[in-house]
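Figure 6 in text form: structure in, sequence out.
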């Protein structure tokens, strides 16, 4: 079986690449999917529906176009990893975690200790919470590996 892991959240560091590289090194049977990680492209996703110089409506249209992608990818994933960084508040990541919880999709949160309190509800619904990408890789290794006796 090939597992599908959806990578959600913070887009300003290379955590996605670290997880992908760690899983590739271990030859884990995983396919990764993700939201659009190009900030400008994500912000402009709805521009094709007509220009709007009012920030709210531009964001509103783009959020809906982006949601077509994220809703489908979350629905199709076997596991999600939701990363919260320290520089920006990732409300979209919290929303993705909520969607996972509502759909019964297992997810792993990835964040530093200094935001544990702020994410207590998100972490409470997660099936694992990691501090590092390497910890995520180790959880994925355990989950997707055939551990049956030979």
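Output sequence:
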């Amino acid at each position: 079986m090939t597992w599908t892991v959806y990578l959600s959240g913070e887009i300003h560091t290379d955590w996605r690449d670290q997880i992908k590289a760690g899983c590739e090194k271990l030859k884990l049977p995983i396919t990764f999917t993700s939201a659009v990680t190009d900030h400008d492209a994500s912000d402009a996703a709805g521009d094709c529906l007509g220009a709007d110089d009012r920030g709210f409506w531009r964001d509103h249209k783009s959020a809906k176009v982006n949601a077509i992608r994220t809703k489908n990818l979350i629905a199709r994933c076997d596991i999600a990893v939701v990363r919260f960084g320290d520089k920006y508040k990732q409300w979209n990541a919290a929303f993705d975690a909520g969607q996972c919880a509502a759909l019964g999709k297992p997810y792993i949160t990835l964040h530093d200790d200094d935001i544990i309190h702020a994410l207590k509800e998100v972490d409470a619904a997660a099936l694992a919470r990691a501090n590092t990408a390497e910890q995520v890789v180790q959880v994925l290794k355990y989950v997707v590996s055939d551990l049956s006796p030979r």
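Caption detail: The mean pLDDT is 94.
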